[in-house]
Each structure stands twice: as structure tokens, then as C-alpha cells.
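User: Could you check the structure of this?
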Amino acid sequence: MDLDDGIEMPSQERAERPFDTALAPTRALVIVPVLTRGHRIPRTAPDDGTPAPQPAPLHSPEDRRAEAVGLAQAIDLEVADAMIVPVPNPRPATLLGAGKVADIKAQVIEHEVGLVIVDHALSPVQQRNLEKEWGAKVLDRTGLILEIFGKRAQTKEGVLQVELAHLSYQKSRLVRSWTHLERQRGGRGFLGGPGEAQIELDRRMIQDRIDGIKLDLEKVARTRALHRAGRNRVSTQVVAIVGYTNAGKSTLFNRLTGAAVLAQDQVFATLDPTMRVVRLQSGRKVIFSDTVGFISDLPTSLIAAFRATLEEVVAADMILHVRDVAHAESEAQRADVEGVLTDLGIDTIAADDHILEVWNKIDLLDAQQRQDRLAAAHFASRAPVTISAITGEGINDLLAAIDARLGQADALLEIIIPAQDGRTLAWLYEEGDVLSRTTTQTGDTDVRLRVPSEKRDRLIAMLRKAGIAI
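Assistant: Sure, the predicted C-alpha cells are below.
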């Protein structure tokens, strides 16, 4: 369904592409429902449109409003107003009470908006009823995030993942505004039997496309598995960078690797994963992987669609959890990220050696705030590293911490290299961290070096082949 008018899109076209924001209205109204009286209803719904109970969000209403406005602006909408709306008694038909629905309708008319964004889960029925009441298109939180992902995806893999999430979301919402669905269509064979409803044809068309995309993504998953196996054979470790959206992950990735990944002050600036090789001080080569940003109540359809990409996080040797410590909701954002990691099967409690917290954006803190953050970091159980990805402050400490974590099992060796064996000596400099080098009276070279654990067996095999004793 297009966002600009009520004209029907042909069934085939509807099934093959997600919401089109190219012609979306430029003015939008943002509504942030805040459930009171102890109600606990998620802000995003499962793929079938049925809300499932979960703990109330940790974010304040003001932060939710600011985030929702940022999400709307990410698809180039002009936000006419953003309202926090208390909801003491959620209504099955409209979520909001009749009085609030009427008040918002008046705002829609006053501001001449064509799109209302509700930062909450809406069932298909609620979405349809609100569109009728307000005379404007309505997007819930899941739909809005899907719109952003649809705009940001660049690679073929990213486009496929976003389309899968879109279609899974659309499939449950065919009922909401398709006025032609009461028609019946005869047919035979794959078109269905006589009298099959149009809605069934549309659902089947969407399901066929979903099945096709899943097959394509299975190929992507197999390809990624082969790449991981190749990296394991050469003992290259992977460090995955994760964090809340706009925490500075891509800026840090660029700082660490010298890459030029898009890094903007906006949500979901990066969707498509990027990997770069970096040599650490010890001589260890690692692969840094920049990943999609997480967000509170990340739609389950997106987690499922991006599973092939997120498997890189699961299989990583180390995870850098980048946090925006200058953000007022930094702790709530941390909980959101750890929640997604838990959903991926990563035990965030028992993974102290596996996860390194990186407290970013300390350059945005005043003197007192900086002192407080540094003190908190000193006493934190996970010993975070404080940095500024923009200025480069703390980057050397971060690289040293990564090197130390990955090198806990490194071997310290002392080797005598014959004077004529320059090849082995060069290899040691290439693959290890030479701590000292002296020449013996016989002209041989006495080398003390640190070797990454994953390279120790290769080194021993090479030395034995060269007839060198350790």
C-alpha cells in the first residue's frame, strides 16, 4: 500500500515490493502512547499482528518521543508535532480511548498531515480503524523501522533481508485497507479452485515470494559459513562491533580500520555489514565487522530476516559493545542491546571475556560528567574502555585491550635461528610479536617472541620442517 493515497496497487505489485515512501507525505504526526496503571504491552507486535506481553520499556516517554522523531526524520518526513499520550485502558479496536482518538484527529486536520506514526505495536484491526478515524495513513513502530531499513539497504543481501521482513509484516495485514478483497475469482491449478477469495491469492503470492527469498538467504548463510571456515583455517579472529543505533559503531569502525563506511548522526546509517582486516601490536591479524544497529523493541521479523548477517556476531571471537555514554538513556540502551544478543543465543552474563564494553562519545561530556564516567568505568564489573571515536581519544587503549583479550593464551617462545635462515626470521616478524633479538657468538639469531595461540601449531610445524629446535 502506498502512503500517499488510497488507490489500490495491483496484487502482483503489492506482493513484490514493500511500502513505497518515494511519494510519502512530507508532514507527519508522531504519537507516543504511554501505558499506565501497570499495563505491560510491547511497542512492537509479532509477525501475526497479535501483541504479546513483555516487560514495560525502560526508556522514558521523553526519550521515546525523541527517538520516534528521529526515526521519522530518517525517512525524510517533516514532523509537524510529536505527542506523548497516556493510555490508562488500551482499547482492542483502537488502542487509544475515543477522546484521544478525537483529539488526535483534530491535530491531523490542524497540521494538515497525511501520515500518523504511532510508536507502539498496532494490530491490523487497530491500524485500519485509526486510519478510518483520522483520515490519514498510519504506521506503527514496526512499520516505521521497516521503512527505514527499506531505504538504507544497499547490497543485494541487505535488500533481500529487508524485503523478507516487509513481506512477513504485510502478510498479516492484508485485511486492513484492500477494498477489493470481497471479490471472488475462479481458477484452476496453481491459481486455486473456483470462488477462491482475492485475499487468498494475494497471501499465496506473498508467501511464494517469501519462500524464494528464504532460499536465497539460505545460500547467503552457506556462503558466510564457508567464509568463516576459511578464516578458521588461517586462524584469523573476528571482532564484531555491536551497539544501539547511532552509538558510533561505524565511526569507531572507520577509526580502527581506516575504512570509509558511511557514518552519520542518524539512526540505522549502516545496514549492510562490512569487514576489514587490521594488524594489532602483537602482530595478530583480526577482522573487524561492523553490524546493523540495535534498537529497543527491535521487530522479531527483522531479527529473523537479518539472522544470516547476525550469525557473524554469534560466531565472532570477541564482541565490542559500543555505548553512547553521553546519552541520557545509556543504561536502557545497554539493556536493549543485551536483550537482542540474548535472543541470538549469546549469554551476556557469562561472556565477560567474550564481550568488551566500549564507552564512546566521552568528548561530549563536561568535566564533571567525564570524571563521573571514568570513575564508573574504574569500578564497573566488565572494565569498559572509554573512548571518543571522533577525536581518537582512548583508541590505543582499546586496541591494547582487544589484543590482550584475544591473546590471553598466547605463547612466549625463545628460538635460535641459524644465521643463514633469513626466511624463518622474516616469517617470525610477519606472524608474531618479536620482543627481543640478539646475535650469538656463532652468528645465529636468538629471538624472543610472543605468538598468538592460533598460530602456535603452524610455527612449530614450520620450525620442525626447517630443523630448528624450540
